[in-house]
Amino acid sequence: MLFSQFFAPTSRDVPSEAVVISHQLMIRAGMISKTASGIYCWLPLAMRVMEKIIAIVADEQSKIGSQRVLFSTIQPAELWKESGRYDSYGKEMLRIRDRKDGEFLYSPTNEEQATDIFRKYVHSYKYLPLMLYQIHWKFRDEIRPRFGVMRGREFLMKDGYSFARNFAEAQEIYQRVFHSYINTFRRMGLIAIPVQADPGAIGGNMSHEFQILAETGESTLFYDGRLLNASAEEQLSIYAVTDDRYDSQTAPIPKEELMVSKGIEVGHIFYFGTKYSKPLDAYVLDENGNKLYPEMGSYGIGISRLIAAIIESSHDNRGIIWPEAVAPFDVTILNLHQQDEECRDIALKLYQAISSKREVLYDDRSISVGEKLADADLIGIPYQIIVGQKKIREGKVELKNRKTSNVELLSPEEVIKRFTSNGE
Amino acid sequence: MLFSQFFAPTSRDVPSEAVVISHQLMIRAGMISKTASGIYCWLPLAMRVMEKIIAIVADEQSKIGSQRVLFSTIQPAELWKESGRYDSYGKEMLRIRDRKDGEFLYSPTNEEQATDIFRKYVHSYKYLPLMLYQIHWKFRDEIRPRFGVMRGREFLMKDGYSFARNFAEAQEIYQRVFHSYINTFRRMGLIAIPVQADPGAIGGNMSHEFQILAETGESTLFYDGRLLNASAEEQLSIYAVTDDRYDSQTAPIPKEELMVSKGIEVGHIFYFGTKYSKPLDAYVLDENGNKLYPEMGSYGIGISRLIAAIIESSHDNRGIIWPEAVAPFDVTILNLHQQDEECRDIALKLYQAISSKREVLYDDRSISVGEKLADADLIGIPYQIIVGQKKIREGKVELKNRKTSNVELLSPEEVIKRFTSNGE
């Protein structure tokens, strides 16, 4: 992609309402555009990151046997009256009347919809366990939307739902999802801390939040340091909580192992038994022809929020530092002297050769050297190939690692080889 | 994918409200589940088709230089008051009040949103032309939603927007999109007829609809048969209209070339000049520092509708016949005798070998031979590999082409080679 043709309106200015760093950087890097309070449009740079996150999440869901569906965003109030949440959900639920004055809502979560599909189509225990998920937009009418897409009203989530024959099977699925979440975040270059959580509005009696570590996080985590090197199975029972649940007197944790970190919630899983299957009368027949109400769980990853959370956990004072797995491009080529014929030839040659194997943003714009370098650091692509008059006369270009700022002086051929041979 | 673990609730029954064949087949094949009038959930089989269509559409958009964004589904009324459409759009617009009693709506189209983003970020003629598109859900509160997802209220579209310096550039883009649409539909195995159209609510003075041929189509097309073999550039001016615009007295078409076919609208493109850029005061500065209002166009493909339209244009009395490019799986293996050890061994071997290169649905369910064959024809995967006791004793399996019903008797090795070597 040529930067001169890429719609990434970078900027030096940020609106005063952008108080957290991810919000500031997403605006400055031209990733999002505000439509209304807590509602954003996503621009091409952000879309590329979103697509990579979605691909990783979908792949990990598929590995645990969860099948992709799509629930409608607009749902009839009737369905939510069956579970009792139409009244209890409060003002965060965006309620809508259609042209025939029917009561509808914009889905804030989908336990009801998933259970409704289950009861329509699944009638025998033989089809259990069943896991369904979707990646879709939801709406929660937050009273104080803030921090950009971190706490928006319209937001993208992966939400999954499981149906099991009994408690043991439900627990097995819960652990499978737990393990898969750790992997999902690790693949994005993130460390996720699973903390015991309050099931809140979803209900039920077992719940974990997944918090990624970020100095600017809104939560404070207290956890046993051994968590970081434990297997996922051990992690289920190792102590980790957010500050609202922490009590230094009773916490079962040796003083020398206590870790305190800031975190951002990016995932949340729940086991809630028959909380929805019973009121919605969703059952199958068991081996003996008796009614069996499936034991359910639900599992969320906040995808739009995750984009901001990754920035909170990976940036410096010059801009974003994308983990390679979710970077909008693998590498950017900066031609510092766009008017110089040799620079143009070399940059174009690098672009054509590397593009065959990697996603490359070639900054061919006629702007100042300073602006070009600043934009590259701001946008945060993991590797920068810097083509400049002086080094080119020596037959070299610079290869800069955005994260470490380490610079190597290499010939164009060496750089091409670096990015096109297998392995880095 | 093992069918025993695949959530595709096939059925013999269809609700009486399903009057068109695509609606009936989508329900019978377990592709969609109704949430409310004109609102559906999409089940795994449909999701696989949708993802393939999205991939083709996105690839063709990228080829013409259009960049992917995502507009919000919920938009402030204020923006639509600027264009005048908040009042003129009528009851098809789903109007919403948020918790603070602010006026919002669920986006039915995005000329305003696209123009708003343009005016915020693009200030110089140097950045023109610009093309943006999204693939996202919209809502139109139809008074009579019908025909399943063919005329739903919540629907998935690709909608694109272009901004050009002048009329000539706008026309060049219009032609580029026109050509790209023909290719997009052709890649899905469809013949699309571009017909001169009425710009309707979008406005403007140049518009084409793309209709795919289907005997059960809702539109009647009158066109010059030479259209079918013309280049896309020639197609722009060859006569083709829907019945509401046809007049046999004045139609500029030789009698012997007149073709009459049924069609289904799946795409619509518009050129409308400065209809939105002027009222929204979206301008750039030209070479001389003067205001230049971009000449705009918008370009839609109805993706959820297309899934139904493909079924209308490609089915028989046994079920769906997916064109290969959009089929949910490339091939299905039917093991007719799941209890027979040799059949199980051969079917599993075929499944493992072919899965390495192709998407395979292996029907390993313990159901009757008749049900298995009927489900395969209903679901419409292009190739069926039928493993049965009798033929296996002769060292053969059957390879059936769903479309032609042609059956070949081949050894398992020959079938594996057919699907795993390059080319078919």
Describe the structure.
Two copies of one chain form a homodimer. Chain A is an alpha+beta fold. Chain A folds into two domains: 9-316, Bira Bifunctional Protein, Domain 2 (BirA Bifunctional Protein, domain 2), CATH 3.30.930; 329-420, Anticodon-binding domain (Rossmann fold), CATH 3.40.50. The first copy, chain A, contains twelve helices and 23 strands. Chain A has helices at residues 21-28, 44-63, 77-83, 85-88, 111-121, 167-187, 232-235, 303-313, 341-355, 369-379, 389-393, 412-420, and strands at residues 32-36, 39-42, 67-68, 74-76, 94-97, 103-106, 130-139, 154-164, 192-196, 206-213, 219-224, 240-242, 258-273, 284-285, 291-292, 295-302, 315-316, 319-320, 331-335, 360-363, 383-387, 397-401, 407-410. In chain A, the strands form six sheets. In chain A, strands 3, 7, 8, 9, 10, 11, 12, 13 and 16 form a nine-stranded mixed β-sheet that branches. In chain A, helix 1 (21-28) crosses helix 8. The longest helix of chain A is centred in the middle third of the chain and has 21 residues, at 167-187. The two termini of chain A are 21 Å apart. The model of chain A has no long low-confidence stretch (mean pLDDT 95). The interface between A and B is large, with 51 and 51 residues.
